[in-house]
From TrEMBL:
It comes from Acrobeloides nanus. The keyword ATP-binding does not apply. This is Peptidase A1 domain-containing protein. Belongs to the peptidase A1 family. The active site is at D149, D365. Residues 1-18 form the signal peptide.
Length: 481
């Protein structure tokens, strides 16, 4: 490996110094690309945005909208509100339901937690994921293909009960509009238990077949930008990697058994669930993430893991990279980004309260295919590269034969370059994406920038949990070795 440069993480975590294990990643066609290629993206986007709008409407009228179904909202209180397409009537429904409930008191820390969960949604939007890996759970092993996400901290997979009658409550089934606004998609389709495609026809975990399984007794709910999932927690042996490989075996790992999932997770057939690789501070319900659990049990010689991604162009279902353990949302600071002749420096960037945003907080995220940043910056860089934003498809497009512009990132005084050609992604049908996306301005919790696959492919990442630092070294292919 080339010279490794270390960057101190902004998130500190004390871990005990504790064999080298590897999980091979498979490159898949992203959900967005597949829908755009087949002409289904516009319909999906319309449906997605409508659901988000309905849920946002209820947030305005009831701060604890996500708890309404758990409070047992009686169906008879809403069954007479029929005209759900009229926006004024929707607001009327929301007010009526709100008045029917006793006000809930929320502890200040819970409100803070809710804010943190909300700000993380921009990070965890999985429509563009291109790399997945296999894990197994239980004894004997049950296999699942999951997103290995350095930007989140929870592990969940679909349970045998996912989408079956009784897992969502009668309120979700009895009222179509409120179900879409307050319940997960799999709760709003059918209360039949026999559908072979319930919850997208994914691989389900069957705890009755695992001799090492222990019930936890608690429920869980995780929010992402692309949707949500909820269910209950269980404890079992989790193995990172395929059966028959040198797996990292982690006994007594707590994980989510999803009984309801949103439409994105149902429709993306390549993904069974998600395994979060980041710190416990980001985990919903304060669950210990699998990798932190492995470190706490001294299962690794060193509390490290390395991420390497391979450039495979338009090929899918081929080896796309590797996670190496023992030889996570990990923030570090960057000072400057230059694309061509367009330069953005953190010393001139301020938040809405006048505080200087320097250095910019940044994460390297394996769950993100492109590079995300403030819209003012990404738009300027797009102009420099010759790319243009498409509002309908929510991507920057660029001429496939464009010269583009290199991206140079300054981190702790060291410059890291992403060549222009690595920022032009073939979308098929003669179109190409420019590998950036705009984010909202950071409110102090969310990162200012997200560096996804283009940066990780160029620079091998070593996450050192023991010393709270992250290291970058040119990947062999990028270095010409």
């Amino acid at each position: 490996m080339s010279t490794l440069r270390w960057v101190v993480l902004l998130v500190l975590l004390g871990v005990a110094a504790a064999a080298v294990h590897r999980t091979t990643l498979t490159k898949i066609e992203s959900f967005r690309h597949r829908l755009m290629r087949t002409g289904q993206w516009a319909a999906y986007k319309q449906r997605r945005d409508a659901l988000r709008a309905k849920r946002q409407l209820f947030k305005q009228f009831h701060p604890d909208h996500h708890k309404l179904n758990k409070l047992g909202v009686p169906a008879q209180k809403v069954e007479n509100f029929l005209d759900f397409e009229d926006h004024d009537h929707v607001a009327h429904v929301a007010r009526k339901v709100h008045k029917a409930q006793k006000p809930l008191k929320i502890h200040a820390q819970a409100r803070k937690h809710a804010i943190l969960a909300t700000t993380s949604q921009n990070v965890n939007d999985y429509e563009d994921v291109e790399y997945v890996g296999n894990i197994t759970i239980g004894t004997p092993e049950q296999t699942f293909q999951v997103i290995m996400d350095t930007g989140s901290s929870n592990l969940w997979i679909p349970d045998m009960k996912c989408g079956t009658n009784g897992t969502c409550g009668s309120f979700c089934y009895d009222n179509a509009f409120l179900c879409e606004a307050l319940c997960l998609t799999s709760c709003c389709q059918s209360n039949e238990t026999t559908s072979p495609q319930r919850c997208g026809g994914k691989h389900f975990f069957d705890s009755s077949k695992s001799s090492s399984y222990v019930a936890n007794g608690k429920t869980f709910s995780v929010q992402y930008g692309t949707g949500s999932c909820e269910g209950f927690l269980g404890v079992d042996t989790v193995r990172l990697g395929d059966k028959g490989t040198n797996q990292l075996v982690i006994p007594t790992t707590t994980f989510g058994q999803a009984t309801a999932i949103d439409s994105f997770f149902e429709q993306d057939s390549d993904i069974d669930g998600i395994i979060g690789m980041a710190f416990q501070s980001l985990a919903e319900d304060n669950v210990v993430p699998p990798l932190i659990n492995a470190i706490n049990q001294h299962l690794l010689d060193e509390p490290l893991f390395t991420v390497t991604l391979f450039e495979k162009g338009m090929q899918d279902n081929v080896p796309g990279g590797v996670f190496t353990y023992g030889a996570t949302y990990f923030q570090y600071g960057i000072d400057q980004i230059v694309v061509g002749s367009s330069e953005h420096d953190c010393t001139t960037d301020y938040d809405q309260y006048g505080n200087q945003l320097c250095p910019w907080t940044t994460i390297s995220d394996t769950g993100t295919s492109f590079i995300g940043g403030p819209q003012a910056s990404t738009d300027d860089f797009a102009d420099e590269a010759g790319a243009s934003w498409d509002e309908d498809d929510e991507v920057y497009y660029i001429d496939c034969n464009a010269k583009g512009a290199d991206m140079v990132i300054t981190i702790s005084g060291t410059k890291y370059t992403i060549p222009a050609k690595e920022l032009i992604v073939n979308a098929g049908n003669g179109k190409c994406y420019w590998a950036f996306f705009p984010m909202g301005e950071s409110d102090g919790f969310a990162p200012n920038w997200i560096f996804g696959d283009p940066f990780i492919r160029q620079y091998c990442h070593v996450f050192d949990l023991g010393e709270s630092r992250i290291g970058f070294a040119p990947a062999k292919a990028a270095a010409g070795k």
